[in-house]
Sequence to fold (441 residues):
Amino acid sequence: MLRSLVPVVLLCCGCATHADKLTAIRSSYHSGNLPAAHAQIDAGIAKSSREADVLKLDKATALFAEGRVREAEQLMREVRDAFDAKEGRDLKEGVAAMLTDDQRLAYAGEDYEKVLVRFYLALANLMQDGSDATAYALQVNEKQQQIVQSAKPTPDGKNLKENYKLVTAGAYLYGALREETHTNYDDAARAFEQVAKWQPEFAQAKADLERVKTGAHSKPGHGALYVFAMVGRGPYKEERAELVSTVAVLIADRILSALGKQSLPPNVAPIKVPRVVKSVNTVNQVQVFVGGKPVGATQTLTDVGRMAQEQCDATLPETIARAVVRRAVKKGIMYGTKEAIGTDKTQWTSLALDLVGVAWEATESADTRCWGLLPDKIQVLRLELPEGVHSLALKPEGANVTAGAPDAVTVSVENGRNTYIVAHYPGSRMVGKAVTNKPAK
Fold:
């Protein structure tokens, strides 16, 4: 039985984490080497179906930065639907995860990823004809509410997700779209009220709310220009050892060993869990120039890094609970094997099984799958400009940002209509190009 158990343990061992593969992708993207990022992402998708969804989100981000928004929207819609389908995790994969680690589970996306993919879908659609943008923006709030309301309470009745930081960017975009209709100012006002409540630091919300209450989108002969900036290098996951839970499992080991005839494998390996890491960023905002004159700077709508970190902290007890149960299952298998063999008569066999048990636990890896090319912050600046063609320049600002030539973009502004620009600034250089729904003709 021992000989048959060893290959099973080796087969079930955890493998390299997603974080290892993501390092090169993030490096290529953040340095502006989009061809290399695409090649690395495509190789990862071809190699691992379990990581395909998050890698498709990274690919869609790179496509968006290049201006290939139709392809980006198609990929993001595919992943959104896949996440929705996987929210009820497959039983067989759950059993397999008990023998290996959480990397075997069907990845249904982190809660913030499920919400942000809908915001990105709205932006990508706006860069085309915008026919589905309002529906996508509305889905942002709907998904947030569904996630919080459907959360299973803890044994003491608490909802770990009720204090989630909400994605203000979705409500803001919905408000801008409803205002542009010139007939749904009440909807716009409710959306901007949510923005002011959820993100009180966002100073533009007050002016937006006052404007829509007057029922005037813009002055006659003017239109609105929204500059969305994806600022900073966003959050990612890395593997950490959870020491508190390790102590708890060690106590459980001693109790179980004291009650039974057989010893249990010593708890040498700590419990490994994914923890969200916030990058150190140099860019604080993006200064906008029109006709060579500064007209304002983008402000933060959604702090993606903070939100991801807080959500990870909120759901950590569930992650640890799965790890503890997994340890118990593995120890139970080893304990049952000892009972079946009768290792109380053979110390060497008992020792060998202990070593197999230690190896089985030590090879676990945390599930570090994540959307790795998100920004740290989603920012926006709204301007009111006369109808016509305008030459703009965008320049990132921050304490350690290297001075360089501003990035130019030319857009058309229409009377009473919205024009949108989306730019990606993970560092002091724009990645790709500034994408707009109304380029100058």
Observations:
- The radius of gyration is 26 Å.
- Residues 304-341 form the longest helix (38 residues).
- Residues 2-436 form a domain with the Serine Threonine Protein Phosphatase 5, Tetratricopeptide repeat fold (CATH 1.25.40.10).
- Residues 1-14, 90-99, 244-268 have pLDDT under 50 and may be disordered.
